[in-house]
Design goal:
The longest helix has 20 residues. The strands form two sheets. The protein has a six-stranded mixed beta sheet with strand order 1-2-10-7-8-9, sandwiched between helices. The chain has a four-stranded parallel beta sheet with strand order 5-4-3-6, with helices on both faces. The chain is of the alpha/beta class and about 325 residues long.
Length: about 325
Amino acid sequence: MRDFSVIPRVNIGHGPTALEYATRLSHSIKCDLYIKRDDCTGLAGGGNKTRKLEYLMADAQLKGADTIVTFGGLQSNHARQSAAAAAKLGFSCELILEDVPGVPQTDYHQNGNILLDELTGANIHRLTAAQNSDDYCTDLLIKLKEQGRKPYCIPLGGSNVIGSLGYVRCAMELVEQIKQQQLEIDQIVFASGSAGTQAGLLAGLIACDSNIRVLGINVSRSEQEQTTLVTGLLQQVLSYLEIDPKHAQGRVHTNGDYFGRGYGIPTNEMIAAIKRCASLEGLMLDPVYTGKAMAGFFDLIERGDIATGSKQLFLHTGGSQGLFAYREIFD
């Protein structure tokens, strides 16, 4: 395996993040539930993208960039943390943000993550429904270069091989915490979106010779689509780490039953899961990712697909800043 410690990385997050036992939720669901608090990574409120950005920003520095360009939905957690990382490290930041159909309208366009993007000084490009983000990004990169700037483009969610290294590191951190706390964990559950978190986490577990099962509950794709996406990226990350990519076989598990009508569109089950976690543990989830993942987790327990008395770990990837954009659904 490649020497992971020498891969360039900037330290912009709070870590290691806590691994906590959720006492009241565990009693409620009749499973032992631990929460990995990656909502507490610190950068502009925290979240999983901070870990990815530690490697992506180091790569941008090595390439001599002066401007970060990335894209996502208007309430993108990745965009918020990218803008904060750029501000912290002295980059300019250009955010290409798409509207999402079917979401609440009262606060969505000016509160939550979009407010924080503006506070960090990012230049926001709000796209209309008729505009394509990939095409817009290509044109923007050309314009920036013509102006003499040196842009560095980060893909959606920071989910390429370099970004995924953040969750290789997280897996190593988690394995050490499990050992220190003398825990037995049957499964890790979390929200799976752009694939980098799941691919990196699995690659790190493989590197540590850990067989803990990982279940990604999808926020925008079918099981087949997401499994294919994660598997492809996992193989690339393993190859980068000089580990045989055949180790990816049989390791990717996803569930596409819980994202409802589409990405970012509320479901009643998500609302109930957010309220349940807040009222039992003071734990704030978000409407797009962790709320839907926890709703799926609860349902899988109720259906018996997750065994009573098992030991489950929920990776909290953050995003609670988005609650303020969705305020009206909790009225």
